[in-house]
Amino acid sequence: MSEEKSLYDLGDQQRRIVETVWAGGGATVRQVWEAVSPNRSLAYTSILSAMQKLESCGWLEHQRQGRHYVYKVAMTREQAQQAALAKFIGRVYDGAPSLLLFQILRDKASRSATPTLRTLVDMKRAVAPDSHPFKSH
Q: What DSSP assignment string belongs to 47-67?
């Protein structure tokens, strides 16, 4: 995909389609239709159109296998999560991940996660000792 895309860019149905294709490691339109609309409340052609649109936007790719097209997501789940997080930090925290981390650390509910966060920061420092652990790249 040429431009970083985020799960925030997708509507509910599109996100369900992408999640279904990820879960199966690839899927045909019929497989997605059966998973997304088990009671057949959505038309097959609606799912087909949505998948074609997702492909034209760079979310999905397809390969022909016999008589069917098998669709795969063009990015890994981790890449999509990273793009969504970057967009969220950009919008809510003015592009400063340190502000997000500060908010997490201030939150009483996340106090139990503090040792894990400390370990992650230490690991980041070990990998890149000269870089500030909260510096945006």
A: HHHHHHHHHHTTSEEEEEETT
